[in-house]
Design a protein that fits this description.
alpha/beta, Metallo-beta-lactamase, Chain A, 6-stranded mixed sheet, 302 residues
């Protein structure tokens, strides 16, 4: 396969600390990642989710919902956008040929306009729900102000081939079979996981918002922080399907954890571990400041 770059495309810092992200201490904000992946494919890049974008930083209103600005408190810094991080790695916006979305929520699709020539892949059900915006919650979470690239959207039915017990994993137009879309409906009606096969044959599964906290994937003892549990409840499009897919993901970890590594978009511990691994930092070694900076200043010393 290709080299992978794990990018945190602007941290969100809601109140609640350990009640949300599980870190030590009762006071202060939580720190949630917006975990995106840049996949090098020869002379082009594929981006899995975009996080927040340049225009979200420059003009947070009206692009972003006042409700979610106040609730999630994103740390809007231009240098943390996907485009600026890729530029520091030596790439240009035009190098990104494709963007594969887990879903169209504001903190996953805000950077679409920073890559105006990229083809965008998602489930058709996601496009339908996001563009209809029938409920108050849908009007807050789906922000058409972020979508200047709709002419380049490519959508898919929730069908395909079996993949580790999931019956509908599918290839994507113009992309190699090592990148698959795996429907994980519930958080939104077109929510997907994105599977990426690594050089050693194992897989990463970016689960987006199919779960929020690493303890939810513990097959022996499910556990979730109360505020992460509440936020998922708040954002559910179909709670029954979300919970069903979480159970399927736990079964995947139990049966195939040696072949598939799952991770959430927003669990900072999972993000830091994968970023350190990609940079060759041994497990258990604290990244050296300046080589692998923390997600946000509030993470220092925790």
């Amino acid at each position: 396969m290709a080299r992978l770059h794990h990018l945190n495309c602007i941290s969100e810092c809601p109140p609640g600390r350990r009640l949300m992200d599980g870190r030590r201490g009762a006071k202060g904000p939580a720190v949630l990642s917006c975990h995106c992946i840049a996949v090098e494919l020869g002379d082009r890049l594929v981006l899995v989710d975009t996080g927040f974008g340049l225009e979200d930083v420059r003009r947070p209103r009206p692009r972003l919902s006042p409700l979610f600005l106040a609730l999630n408190r994103p740390q809007l810094r231009e240098e943390d956008t996907a485009l600026r991080q890729l530029e520091r790695l030596g790439f240009r916006a035009s190098d990104v040929s494709d963007i594969v979305l887990t879903h169209l929520d504001f903190d996953h699709a805000g950077g679409l306009d920073d890559f105006p020539h990229a083809r965008v892949h998602m489930l058709e059900a996601e496009r339908v729900q996001a563009t209809r915006r029938r409920t108050l919650l849908e009007k807050q979470r789906f922000r058409p102000q972020q979508w200047g690239t709709t002419a380049l959207w490519t959508t898919y039915a929730a069908d395909g081939e079996r993949w580790f017990g999931f019956e509908a994993a599918r290839d994507l137009v113009g992309l190699p079979p090592e990148i698959l879309m795996v429907p994980l409906v519930g958080h939104t009606m077109g929510h997907s996981g994105i599977a990426i096969q690594r050089d050693n044959g194992s897989w990463l599964l970016h689960c987006g918002d199919a779960y929020f906290y690493r303890g939810e994937m513990d097959p022996a003892r499910y556990h979730c922080t109360p505020m992460a549990r509440f936020y998922q409840w708040l954002m559910d499009s179909n709670r029954g399907l979300r919970k069903k897919n979480q159970r399927r993901l736990r079964e995947l970890v139990k049966m195939h954890g040696d072949q598939v590594r799952v991770f959430s978009a927003h669990d900072a511990v999972e993000f830091e571990a994968l970023r350190a691994e990609a940079r060759g930092i041994p497990a258990g070694v604290t990244p050296i400041r300046g080589h692998a900076p923390p997600l946000a200043p509030t993470l220092v010393g925790t």
